[in-house]
């Protein structure tokens, strides 16, 4: 019975999110208040099914937020109004399965993963092929690509030493996740940085691509050098690799779709004057549906896409707790003097931009090590760093906010990518953290160096 109720939660959650989106256009105060009131049961329900980490994290944000709210002398009746500022992020997350579903319906994922199969003699070459494959798939499939590539590597590397196999998977798939999503409009950190700094996605894009490709090139080089001496013992040598011509065609189709998707987002964002998160949220279902029609996979997409959307929306408890509790925390923080205390170290270094940018990276890393999600960290940092937008180029700060978050995601012990890899490979998450520590700081350093040119 309990599970049956959970599977139907998408009805309630969607109703609240749709009301909120409607009110973004209408801007009716009493409707915003109703949405805030309806967000309270969402929060309560989510505590039943959320993971222990997010219950602790959300409970902490709520507890501290309420203390700040009361100390600021804010009226209790207005509390619901402080719960709605991040609801668009939940709507954004709920529609992501549509883009994943059309990629799977078209069979692009199965074609492209053929890049990893066969025709390599050592793990150095496999490292390059695996990371490039995961990078491409990650652009559209997000976390689904990690599962896909890790399962394939686990199968193909069955004959390899377990320690070598795990070290290989720890580096290729997790790093590709961070590198690919650092510029993706479907990455929540990117969306938050755009909204928080007021810099357009089109301005961010070339710099994020530069950072991504530089870091990818460095990691491919070192990965190839570290693993090239190990021969690849293929589990299924009799299985012929997919024709490379077909794989390249599928990659080109995906790249064309990606460019078109980005163009639609930028055009809608510019001409309709919507905020970036709302633009992506509205574009994804429409773009995915048209794509499915064009490749003649509408029935498959409709079936699988709706099922994936219902499941995703009904199982968003962790993010519901995180974003609603962050709304209260951030709103209350902005009404107190505490924000000035936290700003102190950053403002004291306003004449040393390199130190400020390094502090951002260190803050992400330290908070990630104690279980704070990067979304929580960026919400706090955007409040704290706001005065510095008049001192430094906000683009430079935004770049480091994005890069540092994604770099930390590769090593955060309690992060979803590390946790997922730990489950898939049956290993201690701290081993995965140690394997990616150097990458985290190299990636972060590349982001800081590029940002310093823009300060």
UniProtKB/TrEMBL annotation:
The keyword Transmembrane applies. Keywords: Membrane, Transmembrane, Transmembrane helix. The chain crosses the membrane at residues 9-26, 32-50, 57-77, 132-153, 174-194, 206-224, 251-268, 274-295, 316-334, 354-382, 394-414, 434-454. The keyword Magnesium does not apply. This is Uncharacterized protein. It comes from Virgibacillus sediminis. The lineage of its organism: Bacteria, Bacillati, Bacillota, Bacilli, Bacillales.
């Amino acid at each position: 019975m309990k599970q049956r109720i959970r599977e139907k939660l998408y009805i309630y959650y969607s109703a609240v999110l749709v009301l909120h989106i409607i009110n973004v256009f209408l801007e009716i105060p009493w409707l915003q208040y109703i949405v805030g009131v309806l967000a309270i049961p969402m929060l309560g329900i989510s505590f039943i099914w959320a993971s222990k980490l997010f219950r602790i994290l959300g409970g902490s944000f709520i507890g501290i937020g309420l203390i700040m709210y009361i100390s600021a002398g804010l009226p209790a009746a207005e509390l619901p109004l402080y719960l709605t500022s991040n609801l668009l992020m939940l709507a954004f997350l709920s529609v992501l399965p549509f883009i994943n579903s059309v990629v799977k319906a078209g069979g692009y994922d199965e074609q492209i993963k053929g890049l990893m199969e066969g025709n390599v003699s050592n793990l150095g070459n496999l490292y390059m092929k695996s990371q490039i494959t995961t990078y491409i798939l990650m652009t559209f499939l997000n976390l689904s690509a990690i599962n896909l590539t890790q399962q394939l590597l686990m199968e193909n590397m069955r004959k390899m030493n377990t320690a070598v196999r795990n070290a290989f998977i720890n580096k290729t798939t997790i790093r590709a996740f961070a590198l690919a999503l650092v510029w993706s409009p479907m990455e929540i950190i990117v969306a938050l940085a755009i909204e928080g700094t007021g810099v357009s996605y089109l301005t961010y894009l070339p710099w994020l691509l530069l950072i991504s490709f530089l870091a990818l090139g460095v990691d491919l080089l070192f990965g190839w050098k570290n693993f090239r001496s190990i021969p690849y013992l293929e589990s299924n040598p009799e299985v012929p690799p997919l024709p490379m011509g077909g794989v390249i065609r599928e990659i080109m189709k995906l790249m064309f779709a990606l460019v078109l998707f980005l163009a639609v987002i930028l055009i809608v964002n510019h001409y309709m004057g919507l905020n970036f998160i709302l633009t992506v949220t509205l574009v994804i279902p429409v773009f995915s549906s048209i794509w499915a029609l064009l490749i003649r996979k509408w029935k498959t997409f409709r079936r699988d896409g709706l099922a994936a959307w219902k499941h995703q929306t009904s199982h968003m408890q962790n993010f519901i707790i995180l974003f609603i509790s962050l709304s209260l925390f951030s709103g209350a923080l902005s009404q107190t003097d505490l924000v000035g205390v936290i700003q102190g170290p950053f403002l004291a270094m306003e004449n040393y931009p390199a130190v400020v940018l390094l502090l951002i990276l260190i803050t992400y890393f330290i908070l990630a090590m104690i279980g704070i999600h990067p979304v929580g960290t960026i919400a706090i940092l955007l409040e704290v760093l706001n005065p510095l937008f008049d001192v430094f180029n906000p683009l430079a700060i935004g770049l480091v906010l994005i890069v540092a978050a994604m770099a930390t995601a590769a090593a955060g012990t309690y992060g979803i990518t590390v946790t997922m890899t730990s489950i898939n490979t049956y290993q201690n998450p701290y081993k995965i953290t140690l394997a990616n520590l150097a990458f985290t700081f190299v990636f972060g350093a590349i982001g800081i160096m590029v940002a310093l040119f823009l300060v």
